[in-house]
Inverse folding.
């Protein structure tokens, strides 16, 4: 097991009270920076200590925590924003968005972040709940004359099964991301209003960087780098072309799992978690992990299908994996089932529902001893200066 670094961190809910500050981004755009009161945990340092720090910092914000296609309690679709930079600049020298479920643009606006400011967008896989918001991000950049943005995802994958032959295509998603607006005449109309807008529409602002497959089984394949920030990727099992990412900075490291599951599609197996995510997370500071609760296991009284249950990582196994990997902070997201509701879309939740405490209890049952944060939209974890 890797040694847990145990870096202190500040946790906050970005939707609470804010103090506002302005900084210049371009001659036509200023970003509203939201800094909020901390929700301090007993095991973490006082929030006031961070306000006096100097140097660099790293922030991880869950921009959306909805698990799967259902829409529950106004949650945004899956997404994670990583911010890295100087404390003076609110850790915002580099902004990376991982996945872009529905509502991503709106959640970013609540953080005071414009789609114009993103340096890169990374997609873990071609499921709609992780990609629906991409069109909105690109449309925003196109409408307001933003620069092209890096989009990193897997190369096309042909999947042959007894049911069908199909191609999972990130390049296709990006190329056709604004087709509805093109065919509706929206793009042409907006260009009449401002001819500086790219005639190619929003897709023209995508600098697509496809990750060739197959990837090496061991971590270390760099897919994006800027200054002190590097991002590596590894292939995972969920649907063909699925990826997990690791962000490394001088302040700390973060792994974003996507919906990765085990290479064995179902029992008997030792664990439901991903072998490659576990390797990628070895010694990381933070693991952002999609989670399904065992209450949805087949035979448990839910009508949730067995196939999607078994291709996710369950919360108890996640706790065991995080402990083995030595990560100091575990952020659960893409929660299935959603908390504080009796149903998850059309699926009933046994017992009338579960809460965030039930997710944490499951990870603790797996043996995890680090800090657990059960996701809600805009939950933010901030790592201080590296020692």
């Amino acid at each position: 097991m890797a040694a847990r670094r145990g870096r202190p961190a500040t946790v906050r809910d970005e939707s609470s009270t804010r103090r506002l500050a302005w900084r210049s981004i371009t001659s036509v755009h200023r970003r509203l920076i939201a800094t909020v009161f901390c929700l301090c945990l007993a095991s973490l340092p006082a929030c006031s200590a961070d306000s006096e720090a100097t140097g660099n910092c790293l922030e991880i914000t869950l921009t959306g925590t909805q698990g799967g296609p259902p829409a529950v309690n106004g949650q945004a679709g899956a997404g994670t924003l990583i911010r890295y930079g100087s404390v003076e600049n609110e850790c915002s020298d580099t902004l990376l968005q991982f996945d872009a479920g529905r509502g991503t643009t709106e959640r970013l606006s609540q953080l005071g972040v414009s789609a114009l400011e993103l340096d890169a967008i990374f997609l873990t896989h071609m499921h709609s709940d992780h990609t629906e918001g991409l069109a909105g991000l690109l449309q925003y950049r196109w409408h307001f004359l933003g620069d092209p943005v890096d989009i990193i995802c897997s190369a096309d994958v042909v999947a042959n099964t007894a049911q069908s032959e199909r191609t999972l295509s990130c390049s296709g998603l990006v190329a056709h991301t604004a087709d509805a607006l093109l065919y509706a005449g929206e793009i042409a109309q907006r260009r009449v209003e401002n001819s500086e807008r790219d005639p190619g529409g929003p897709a023209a602002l995508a600098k697509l960087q496809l990750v060739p497959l197959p990837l090496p089984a061991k971590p270390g394949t760099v897919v994006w780098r800027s200054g002190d920030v590097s991002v590596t990727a590894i292939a995972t099992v969920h649907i063909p072309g699925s990826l997990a990412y690791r962000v490394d900075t001088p302040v700390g490291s973060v792994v974003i799992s996507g919906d990765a599951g085990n290479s064995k599609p179902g029992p008997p197996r030792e664990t439901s978690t991903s072998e490659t995510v576990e390797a990628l997370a070895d010694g990381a500071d933070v693991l952002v992990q999609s989670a399904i609760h065992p209450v949805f296991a087949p035979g448990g009284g839910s009508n949730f299908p067995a196939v999607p249950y078994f291709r996710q990582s369950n919360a108890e196994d996640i706790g065991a994996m995080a402990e083995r990997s030595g990560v100091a902070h575990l952020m659960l997201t893409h929660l299935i089932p959603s908390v504080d509701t009796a149903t998850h879309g059309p699926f009933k939740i046994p017992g009338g529902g579960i809460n965030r405490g039930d997710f944490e209890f499951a990870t603790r049952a797996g043996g995890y001893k680090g800090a657990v944060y059960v996701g809600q939209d805009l939950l933010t974890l901030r790592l201080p200066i590296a020692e």
